Amino acid sequence: MSIKEFIDLRSDTVTLPTEEMLEAIRNAELGDDVLGEDPTVNRLEQMAAAKLGKEAALLVTSGTQANLVSLMSNTNRGELVILESESHMYWYEVGGISSIAGLLPWPVRSKRGALDPLDVEAAIRPRNIHFPEPALVCVENTHNRHGGAVVTPDELRLISEAAKGHGLRVYMDGARIFNAAVALKVDVKELAKHVDNLMFCLSKGLSCPVGSVVVGTGEFIEKARKVRKVLGGGMRQAGIIAASGIIALEKMIDRLEEDHVNAKRLAEGIAKVDGIVVDLERVQTNMVVLDISGLGVSDERFLSRLGENGVLASTIGKNKVRMVTHRGIEKEHVEKAIVAVAIVADELRRGFA
Ligand code: TLP
Prior knowledge:
Elements: E1 7-8, H1 19-27, H2 39-52, E2 56-60, H3 63-74, E3 80-84, H4 88-91, H5 96-99, E4 104-108, H6 117-123, E5 134-140, H7 153-164, E6 169-173, H8 177-184, H9 188-192, E7 197-201, E8 212-216, H10 218-230, H11 239-251, H12 256-271, E9 287-291, H13 299-308, E10 311-312, E11 314-317, E12 320-324, H14 331-349
Parallel strand pairs: 1-10, 3-4, 3-5, 5-6, 6-7
Antiparallel strand pairs: 2-8, 7-8, 9-12, 11-12
The structure holds ligand TLP.
């Protein structure tokens, strides 16, 4: 079976560029972006800054690079960074926060992805000879390991007030910030205005092949541009990446709603399967988390049987399977995926598979 024949729910990162993006890439006006001369990159960066309500923006290669560049541009080595204990920066970025940025990550637990401002305050240590300087609070929106949970403008405001009260900056890993804005039916600026700077990814639900964008004040972005260079992220004719990003910002945001509707459908269908639990209230955007403890098998076993039935998903921890909807996953795929999950669960429960 070729990968194209599977119903691929592993991530929205698997989306392929649209025909219009490929056309835009083909026709993009290009220049050397390290010299600031790629008109397509410049246009994307201006559009992104305007859309998020910030002064300036910077195109980078990936979400991971965006987070690292932003960490390094917001802090000095040896400082302390408060982040959510399930956050992508803490879990999935190979520890770059310590090994490259030289920072001390201070994880704080949350119930549903949004840090409790009181916990943020409690984590901010007094300035004292024994302690690293606290510098930054990070939030993630939508929150990946909390199943695509949205952090609301009010929650962001309170977190930000707690941080600012102690002179700390606030940064948002907004890899899927447009999913949050669409789910909450708010202008994305309402989310961005509570943080000093943030990033969003072009290469997830927005369907671009490559790229993320860091957004913030002009001064911050100037620093970030230099940090990107030191990390080897200075790109030359990067307009071929930016061209698809422009299409994404113009045309791909509103359709995220379809992914959310499909995630709900998927969740409701799977919730009826014996042995699997889905917390429907937690399905707010394009992710569904399945608790498969009732099946009595490992995630690997479940995922491999599911794969044999034509559906790909991923594990995010023991007995926890993640499914992500995205462009290319239609209602009919959702229905087929529900049937596949039901068949596999039934076989596994009865010990046949
Ligand atoms: N997340 C990926 C995997 O790395 C887990 C996924 O499939 O969801 N922030 C958040 C919140 C993310 O979810 C991701 C990617 C990143 C940053 C990193 O982006 P990339 O993969 O472009 O480096």
